[in-house]
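Our consortium's second objective concerns turning raw sequence data into structural hypotheses that experimental partners can test. To show how far this objective has progressed, the report includes one record in full. It was chosen at random from the queue rather than selected for favorable results. The single chain below, 533 residues long, was entered without modification.
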Amino acid sequence: MDWKKLIGLTIIVGFIAGCSKDMLDIDPKNQVLENNFYQTREDFEAALISAYDPISWVFHWGASTFVTLNVASDDANAGGTPGGQDIMAYQGADKFTLTPGTERIESLWRKYYVGIYRSNLVIEHADTSDKALDEIIAEAKFLRAYYYFDLVRYYGDVVLLDHIATVDEYSLSRTLAGDVYAFIVNDLREAIPVLPDKNKRTKNQLFRATKSAAQALLGKVYLFMSSPAINCGNYYQQAADLFGTIIKSGVYDLFTDYDMNFQATHEHGIESIFELEYTSAINSTFQADPYTGYSYDEASVDFKLCGIREWSQGSNTSVVNLQAGWGFMKPTRELVEAYIAANDQVRLNYTIYLGNPMSPEIDTAFNFYLGEYGTWGIEEEESEDFEGFFRRKYRYDNNYVVGDISYLNMNIIRYADVLLMMAECMVNGATDTYNGNTAGYYVNRVRNRVNLPSLASVTMDDIKKERRLEFAFEMIRYWDLIRWGDADIVFNNYKPGKGYHWNPAKKGLWPIPLVEINRSGGSLTQNPGYINE
């Protein structure tokens, strides 16, 4: 079944957006339709597509996962209109000044609980004795785990719902993060034996979860659980066994060219384990959703949001096919310096535009880096967030644009991530049970792909550097800093005088949105370090 034909069916399963009666009530008309709906496998397929849908939601004026996580890291500044007041959810994520009342930060909270609700609908309505539904149930559990994993990383203790809430559950309290992690693990362990391999998926099903996607996600969960930030125990060997199984399967490999990961012609390719699917079939509407009050797209307005403000082709013949955007998510000098220090020419050129006029050539880049920014006559230069560099990875490219949106897919988990996570497990004491390789072997595979020399031995510091250079602007860096316990080191004195206010007491967590606390009647409590304002 083609998922693009099913987008319109997502309304059949209702919506959850918080923990109050307002947000948990289901319109009676929808309830009748829902009760009559789950009859055939095709009905469940449609409901499952509905559960996938929130992964790709991009809120125009809310908080985007892609933007918030990248600007929260030391790889990007918030940007936007010069003056530092453009979409405060992004400015606050960048400078660690979010408050419980920051406008529209609740869009992330709601997005994930919508996904959880829709996943629970599938699981609750499915007859477990019907073997034909086993795979659908497994996918729904994968999705529920995926949504909870993002929630627990953003907020720590969160409301845990493994079912559709009843009338006496409208004001629920938060569940300890450790218990949420245990729930995620259980969902993924139950899903893995049932999910199919990637090569069993049809072309129209490639966006859906596979056995390897669940294994990779569970391995990543285990790494978080093993980290000093979470401190749930030592799960490095369990994670290594999952990554080792993926490697041994032979289904995945690295693209020969790093940039293939970010081209529409290579979507769902050999390096892709799980990626976020966008479509050109639906253009941006900017219409408010009746449940959330926010507009969202099935394709990515994020890439326009983060495109170069007031860009025009002009004489910049070294860069073609770009469209002008709204100026968010500017690369930092720190990131450029990290590439140059590693002599990483390939990934630098494929990740960041450098030079004047924005030549991707490394020689020009070095001149540009040394301060010869030039004048391009565009508004970007007036922003204090502009440090002389523009993002190339996930660029706002004419080749992938319809109206205001881009239909280029976005990587969630790719094979290079599995290789580097495997090496990390081994540096922390795990063994490669299934393949017999060393940590250096896996790190060097990633390095050699971009023409960097092999390392004779590998340390945790080597892996940290490699992950930053490999995954810049892929929503990974901030979580890595948190789980390694490095955020305090990186951010405690970050860019003095630029308005950054890292507070170690917050432990890198987002504030519980004030609107959700109010709706809960006070049963939701706030994270440490925040004041309800």
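The partners drew two points from this record. Residues 384 and 398 are 28 Å apart (CA to CA). The longest helix spans residues 134-155. Both points have been shared with the crystallography group to help prioritize constructs.
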